[in-house]
Amino acid sequence: MQEIMAADRAAFAQSDGVEIANRMLARTRIDPARRRGRGAGINPSGRFEPFARSSFDDGWSSLEDLPAFKTDVQVERPRTIITRNTSPDISFDRSINPYRGCEHGCVYCFARPTHAYMGLSPGVDFESKLFAKPGAASLLEAELSKPGYEVRTIAIGTNTDPYQPIEKRYGIMREILEVLEAANHPVGIVTKSALVMRDIDILSRMASRGLAKVAMSVTTLDRRLARTMEPRAATPTRRLEAVKALSEAGVPTMVMTAPIIPGLTDSEIERLLEAAREAGTREAGYVLLRLPLEVSPIFKDWLLQHYPDRYRHVLSLLRSMRDGKDYDAEWGKRMRGTGPYAMQIRRRFELAARRLGLNERRTALRTDLFTAPKGAGVQLALL
C-alpha angle 57/58/61, rounded to 5°? Predict the structure, then answer.
């Protein structure tokens, strides 16, 4: 093992040279055979770790062959399940995350750095070392029953996907929906999984009362690109099929062309919106590629491995919208970027949406039907 010098990391952070970037990332790159089916090609140490390490061939590798990364799920027992925020540039103030980490392996995922809080890598660890919260429904029931609870839409899928593959085994998301349905509580879901169709029965009943809405993230229509960029997520075709099924069941849907990657997927904006409209959605949105903290080297390594000819162009366009940086976290700028190219993307999206009749009306969920739960795990009144 060898330590990556801070000066090297700083040089790489703003490097747009393919040769320099390759040299920096080669120190942390993982054997493709070990990470097959994963999005990240590196597994860098988290920012809270005292050392940043990487492997190298010391001549004894044949005696130290490491096994392939397998998905490992640990059970987490949090004390609360509703997370609150005060961010001024997002439309919700509370959310639920049934899982930590995400097996979909989206290489661009802005949530990757959260794995550093667990002492794990935002790289391959984020996709293979997951945490499930099987007690989420009981915690939610208890929190909704608290005196003075103020009802607002709960967002699910804002950090990691609630319908990622391990949901088939744990069923935590369905249990959460059962609690929300019983309480007549509004919910907004973001996913890129066709597994959401499993819960059409609950979602359609909630939608008939104005309590549910689903946003499907569709990054590209190119199946090959999606396979390398989002290796364990549903194919673009399956996502659009899910949108169609939800729409036909009466569930309001929205398609998020997110993230838009300049120089790679931005050419698809109009085609994505046309496909979304054909699938039955009436609303659409977008978010510009975000590369906070450890996401930047992970995305750059992926770009070098799969699209080296576009490496400099993609980063140049991105930085032109981020004040010369890989990422600008300032509220109001982080989602859309600034500058001429960002304005061009915004106008293209708006014109295409207007032509297709999208976003003429936004679905507002109801909050006046809420009834506090009175089931198991809820503190009853003394008198």
Answer: 65
